[in-house]
Amino acid sequence: MLRRVSSAALFFVCLAACGGGSETNETTTTLVEEVPLVTTTQIEETAETPTTVAEQIVGVIPTTTTIDPSWTGPVYPLTGLPAYEGIPETPAVVVKIGNNDQNSLPQHGLREADIVYDVRIENGKSRFMAVYHSRLPEVVMPVRSARSSDINLLLNLNHPVFVYWGSNDIVLEEIKSAEWSGGYDSRSAASQWGEQYFNRDSSRSRPANGKVNIGDLQETASNEAEVPVAIFEYGELTSNAVPAAGVQWTITRRVVDYIWNSSLEQWVRYQDGVPHLDENGTSLTVDNLLFLYIGYGISDADPSSPQAISTGSGDGWLLRDGTVTGVTWERSRSSDNWTIVDDESGEMVPLDVGTTWVTLAKPGEGRILSSAEAIELIG
């Protein structure tokens, strides 16, 4: 979206598609327009048949943000948004953020992340790996331990600073090996290179109270750390995109939904049936959702811990601007950027400028929501 303007209506259409280490309100009302369920073979023939119903989004505050479409100056590499004051000559900072249970809530600083990876961990839960560059929150919490999955997701960010609370011995060996090879600078609460920057919030219980000021850690980056390069392509909506109400990710002990809100022109995140709120009690929202199907192996560090296989190729969806596009992703090496192409035409599929959350799901764990399902969730 090169221009975002608040509106009074929320348009929903659905697409039926196939999903192919251990550690112990305010309410605003908008309108929804519903259309019939369609299959992938009926996309081009779908005719909208609106039915208006009421929608309530807890904690969402509609805003108007205008982006100058004529801007030809520098853009932030991890969002594609105009860098009106220039691109910061600083490395990206990547933080492991807990999402194990209710004790992890609310997270602090997730809204400011340029990119967030949502990755499976043990016990049927997931954990975030948040990437910061264009904005740095003063506090990120809860900072949690690293996993083997994290390393390959870091290596295309041009030597970032990797921030985590700790890890078991085998993961630590993996982290140090990649660091010594020039992949990133690691900063841990258990390390002499970072421990003085980590604190505990006395109002919360351990282990979900570890916090850090990532600006302080960014300043400790080595001379090898550089400004990140773009890892996604940004551009206009493709012609094969079709309107969508939302998407759902279901794993053993978690259900995550993203529902389109046209007033915000963003996707609103729900977790386990309720809005996922930030530290200010406001619903977390995102411009792009990349829903990628990947393989998961078993971590060498812990047989109960799944390890994301984030190189190779697979199917997925890109959700942006209230639409969904079936895509194929490819990343031959962990140092490569993500290649996202239309699974029908084979043409490059660009993301919208703005923030991106990436769900790394097993095949079969996701589905596109119908309008009725989206309305029922937010009702």
Describe this structure in words.
The strands form 6 sheets. Strands 6, 7, 8, 9, 10, 13, 19, 22, 23, 24 and 25 form an 11-stranded mixed sheet that branches. Strands 14, 15, 16, 17, 18 and 26 form a 6-stranded antiparallel sheet that branches. Helices cover 8% and strands 33% of the residues. The chain is built from 4 helices and 26 strands. It has 379 residues and is mainly beta. The relative contact order is 0.20.
Summarize the model shown:
The protein is mainly β and 379 residues long. Helices cover 8% and strands 33% of the residues.
Topology:
Blueprint: E1 9-11, E2 15-16, E3 27-33, E4 38-39, E5 52-58, E6 93-97, E7 115-120, E8 126-132, H1 148-154, E9 161-164, H2 169-180, E10 185-188, E11 198-200, E12 210-212, H3 214-218, E13 242-243, E14 246-251, E15 254-261, E16 266-271, E17 274-275, E18 285-286, E19 288-293, E20 295-298, E21 306-309, E22 312-320, E23 323-331, E24 339-342, E25 356-361, E26 366-369, H4 371-378
Parallel strand pairs: 1-3, 2-4, 6-9, 7-25, 9-10, 19-25
Antiparallel strand pairs: 3-5, 6-8, 7-8, 11-12, 13-23, 14-15, 14-26, 15-16, 16-17, 16-18, 19-22, 20-21, 22-23, 23-24
